[in-house]
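Morning, I've got a small favour to ask if you have a moment. You're getting the sequence in one-letter code plus the fold written as tokens. Thanks so much in advance, here it is:

===
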Amino acid sequence: MILMEQRELGRTGRNVSVVGQGTWQLGGDWGDVREADALGVLDAAVESGVTFFDTADVYGDGRSEQLIGRYLKERPDAGIFVATKMGRRADQVPENYTLDNFRAWNDRSRANLGVDTLDLVQLHCPPTPVYSCDEVYDALDTLVAERRIAAYAVSVETCAEALTAIARPGVASVQIILNPFRLKPLDEVLPAAREAGVGIIARVPLASGLLSGKYTADTVFAPGDHRTYNRHGEAFDQGETFSGVDYGTGVAAAAEFAALAPEGATPAQTALRWIIQQHGVTSVIPGARSTEQARANAAAAALDPLPRSTLDAVRDLYDRRFRAAVRDRW
């Protein structure tokens, strides 16, 4: 097993690998993934030094959690920290974010994962008023007191939501979209999180694969892939797909970004390395559909830090291609 840098995940007091394993793909929302292949991805990640899995009760309607639960049962010695999410299986109205519902959702996730206490539960991009509701945080504190969960956190769409959550003393971490095409969190969220001792989990790190440099304007995704059915926000927030950027613009920008990759590194690894070295980031959670992808993602942790010239070039690329379209939305 390869050793990887570990960082403390905010107020959890637990350490996690700087590259984690996102498991949205394993639920089937990116096209079909066979069970054996999914378990192989998890094993490849762990053997590459990953100690952090991120999932949600809505990924494959629980399939992702169930696969992780099976893996944990088979590898109890792996020392994996699992963060899951709750809330997106219900109608998205603030009235649904109650203690009774939290307990029901929590029971389902604990059964799926095969554990008595969940390491971390994140509110899964709830309606914006939820982040300001005292009763919501009281309910989450109750779950901790009942030892259903060890800690709680939030996953957000906007920087404003992140800042609201960071101000709450019980919030352990914030999961937010951060990648070379989405820089706004660097200016506002990361400094506030560092000051408060809140962890930052960077999601959608490859802009739904754009930053891998593998796609062209003619690439066709499967009908069941959110990169087909949610390209313009038809099913959920557009920011979750290609980071909300126009696909054609994203493909052109990805080609420009690929030229910044250092010798021996892929564009995807370069994007992950860029995220890892942003001050305040705890872990980045790329997804993978194959063992090769999982190993390649994890290898980004061993790359040398990117030089200042590359960091400046990423900022310039963002300013030219995306700032106007993205900054005021998220």
